[in-house]
Specification:
alpha+beta; two-stranded antiparallel ribbon
């Protein structure tokens, strides 16, 4: 992610504060145990549309409570430099996140999780957490959506790491996206690609769109993934 070949491409919420009137309250943020047998993994960025990166037997819409997408990770290599870091996606505390839950078969899960670890957190930007998510499934009557809770792995931001940007002002986000150019190109390309993919999936990220609207930019989507 922060400085990985396939940095997850989403950035701030679907990050609305938890509404106490909603029927689904947020669970505690702490870990639960990794399940035996088949497992689920929650994706909130580029893995949602670049699904060949994760072998799976099912991929279903899901919502994670207690964390939200945020522009909160400084990229010192792939989307920026030490002198002028870029800003990319992480899962930070609070709110909720719409994403995709991938079911991973028990017989291959050790290798899949090892590959995900290498992809996501080579410089300790993230922690793997096992969290409760709600997945959508087709109801038996074929007309309505049903849902159920599962335990899923997710990589959340390491707030103690040097890549964590903390809470930034809108102007600081725009500045860091504008300045970021690294081994995988411009941070602005990353943001444009992220917003386009999320919109295609029906996910509205108001803060991402607001940051992107701060630029005069070529409307042709960059081919960065």
């Amino acid at each position: 992610m922060a400085d990985q070949p396939h940095t997850p491409d989403a950035i701030t919420p679907d990050c609305r504060p938890i509404n106490p009137d909603r029927p689904e309250p947020p669970p505690p943020l702490g870990d639960v145990a990794e399940p035996d047998g088949d497992i689920w993994f929650f994706a909130y960025g580029s893995l949602m549309w670049d699904r060949g990166q994760i072998p799976h037997t099912a991929a279903l819409p899901a919502r994670l409570w207690g964390y939200h997408r945020a522009l909160c990770i400084m990229s010192y290599f792939y989307r920026g430099t030490e002198a002028q870091p870029g800003l990319v996606l992480g899962l930070d505390r609070g709110g909720s996140t719409r994403g995709i839950a991938f079911r991973i078969a028990a017989q291959g899960k050790a290798q899949v999780m090892a590959d995900l670890k290498a992809r996501e957190t080579s410089v300790n930007e993230y922690h793997l957490r096992w969290l409760r998510v709600r997945i959508e499934t087709d109801a038996s009557d074929g007309e309505k959506k049903a849902s159920r809770k599962v335990i899923a792995g997710a990589y959340v931001i390491n707030r103690d790491g040097r890549h964590y940007a903390g809470k930034l002002s809108f102007d600081d986000k725009v500045r860091m996206v504008a300045q970021g150019h690294g081994d995988r190109g411009a941070c602005l390309d990353y943001l444009c690609n992220t917003v386009a993919h999320l919109q295609e999936m029906g996910i509205k990220e108001r803060e991402l769109e607001r940051v992107l609207a701060g630029f005069v930019y070529d409307p042709e989507p960059p081919n960065v993934y």
